[in-house]
Sequence to fold (329 residues):
Amino acid sequence: MAEKLLDPRMTTPSNLKNSVFQNSPLRLREAPALVLLLVIIAWMFLFKSTFRSLENIGQIGQQAGILGIMACGEALVILTGGVDLSVGAIAAMAACVAGGRMSAGMPWQLAVICGLGAGLAGGWINGALITYRKLPPILTTLATLLGFRAFTNIITGAVPYTPLSAGFGKIASSYGPIVSFVLVVVVLATVLARVRFGRRIVAIGCNEQAVRLSGISTDAVIRRVYLLSGLLAGAAGILISGASNSAQWNIADGYELNAIAAVVIGGVRLSGGEGSIIGAALGAIILVTMQKSLFLYGRPQEQYGLVIGAVILLAAFAEQFRRFRESKN
Fold:
């Protein structure tokens, strides 16, 4: 009985209807995002020769890898029905902890571990406040967004750590982000599809009360999800600092909105229970590819929001249309 309650197909009609896609790495929900990405790439390859350059493709891979790592953590949180607005601040805190250790002479490998520990600490604080004190996720993570930013500003004195370790910078500015991104996507997609912990994440977003009544500690699952979100945000922040050879308190400012936008564009339902890691990864790639395309067309950065906002609205309309069709059937 407990396992039935944990099966998303038993708790949402839409998942039952699309059960043929349950074990597929690319489900029907992700199809619009994939089509959009292919259209953008095809258009740019045909009409912008600079888009085809290896340098440009490398930059897209690096930026998409960093945002994608953060979006994957955000997707886990949103699948439970929560939200994490503090990922950008956690990224900055982790980057500055790692950067500070490198500047103090610590080997970059150990400094990175310290930075990841800071990310885990930020995630644990979020999870503890939400589960132990029963605070709303949106208010909790809004408060920690501000708190972590201020804390990072204080401990650094608003002075950047630069330059960082040359060895670490070489990895973070080349293959590090994209390799890390692929590993994160593969591992988390497998966890959601094949591991009991992953099924519980989705089930909580579908019907948290049913999961709790089955004897599962939903609070423990949610705390682990926020820990993972903090860890991945920290990893993204460390990669940002390595790529720029500088760690400062205001890096990744606004990344929380980009991460949520990537998750929505990738077909993850904001109220939880439906979506995938692959969808969030596609959303991150779409977002970065669109930004790069607008840059190549000479559009000012201030106008990017118009196009990206329109795409998010299209994703919302697609979700609404999907719901309408399901209700008719």
The chain has one domain: 2-13+27-38+54-328. The chain has 15 helices and no strands. Residues 264 and 315 are 7 Å apart (CA to CA).
